[in-house]
Amino acid sequence: MSRTVILDTTAVGRAISRIAHEIIERNEGAEQLALVGIKRRGEFLATRIAQKIEDFEGVRPLVEAIDITAFRDDKEQNGSAAMTPLALDPAGKTIVLVDDVLFTGRSARAAMEAILQKGRAQAIQLAVLIDRGHRELPIRPDFVGKNLPTNRAETVIVSLSEIDNADGVMITK
């Protein structure tokens, strides 16, 4: 199995900064924003993006992590996941879902379902570090760190220092 480095630590940092700038520009500031990171790596990316937004704008958006297990339509349910994992009230807010890799779109769909169950947001946007294609659902990210065309046999591995002790993105064949 061969591994190719797609983004190193510096490139991951640049991608996060670019995403933060694009979120600010699209939303004309950060006052009504809430970042919701899809567990596990999305939650750490959301925290990093929120920090960058605060550095740039002086306003830190709300940040929350969401466990979408109970909302997945492609995985076996074990019954232990909470049906409403979101604590914040989405009403009147622009929610930016944050995930590490966008592939089929099923995680993003599940996260949207969880948010909509809690309430109606002003808007829901999607930020991903890597967009690798191969959608099964009509989901398109609003903010992308890197577009990475892949084939289905390849695997994209995102490493974050909070979990993996280093930042990087690799592809395995």
The secondary-structure class comes to alpha/beta
Tell me the number of structural domains.
1
CATH topology: Rossmann fold
Across the major sheet, the strand order is 3-2-4-5-6
Task: State the separation between the terminal residues, measured CA to CA.
Answer: 6 Å
CATH class: Alpha Beta
In this structure, how is the largest beta sheet organized?
5 strands, parallel
Arithmetic mean pLDDT: 93
Low-confidence stretches: none
The CATH architecture comes to 3-Layer(aba) Sandwich
Task: Let me know the number of strands.
Answer: 8
Question: Shape, please?
Answer: globular
Work out the helix count. 4
Helices and strands, in order, run as EHEHEEHEEEHE
Short structural description:
The chain has 173 residues and is of the alpha/beta class. It contains 4 helices and 8 strands, in the order βαβαββαβββαβ.
